[in-house]
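hey can u check if this looks right to u? its 363 residues, i copy pasted from the old doc so theres a chance i mangled smth
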Amino acid sequence: MEKLALRTEGVTARSGRAERGEQVIAVLAPMSGSAGIWGPSCISCAQIAVAEVNEEGGIAGSRLVPYFLDSDDGNVSALEAEIAALIQEKAIAAIVGMNVSSVRQRLNKIVAGRIPYVYTPLYEGNEHSPNVFAIGETPADQLEPAIRHLTETLKVRNWALIGNDYVWPRSSHAVARKRIGECGGAVVFDGYVPFGLKNAEWLAERIARAKPDIVLVSLVGQDAVEFNRAFGAMDLDRRMFRLSTAVDENVLLATGEENTKRLFVASGYFSALKTDPNEAFKERYCASHNTHPPVLNALGQSLYEGVHFYAEMRANQVRGRGPGPIRYRSARSGTYLSNDRKDLTIYLSRADGHQFAILGELA
């Protein structure tokens, strides 16, 4: 039988919750599979956001209650059934989810706009389903300026593109191909693998035969770890650069510093950011754990944002404010304008051992 949920607090009928002044949201976090490496930080960040919302009076006076569910792609059938039942029973008011896009697309059919679905991570763009709010970065935000910058500074021309076989890598690579061509480059390899990559040496060998100058890595979580380990073990980093928009501090740590040379990442958030909002966030994050906290990263922080985005959106509705820009608490600066437009800063970093050295902002 599939293990589905981490139930930090049980879900009862909405009427009972309402009488006690509580509002339940389903919080989706990867707890298994390739993306499971991000689960602990996702859960921790969401818990901090929920605590902060409740400390400030909740949502329209209602205490926010999280209901954690495993969002792994391999568990999506069970997740669909659980979400359908929760909505039918009116047990949840919204979904805040950090999951891959293939899971989001399947859940959209189940949710069908009946409750808000705040989708938090970077994604491929073009999400226009009713009542779905995609607050993360798109390839236009991350990939396009990173390709342009690295082409100019590293003088790279030939690119290899690798990713998991689902919508985010394929759509992102379509954007990358266009930008690479506009910058005078060429794609010499474009390949996709299922989730659960094992023995990644064969993939690294195929990349080596294609002889690119740089590899765009669009692999999820543990799959990125496996590939980057194989890449480093074959000393391919001596003659090729790597770029990713999804390699985070967890992947960096698991990959090992000997395998992360000449690896660049474009992202709207790194734990190394020296900003007042991030320093305050990290202080709360560390204080919430008696021992060493899970490694902080962009995917976890996105769930922190997602909970606060939902709270601010509901507060605006209660105040009678119409649709418009939404500013919400975050460990970075940013404003949601629409699913396709956000006002945020994208940073380029280089792996430096087990940490990232932030090189600057991408324009």
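The mean pLDDT is 91.
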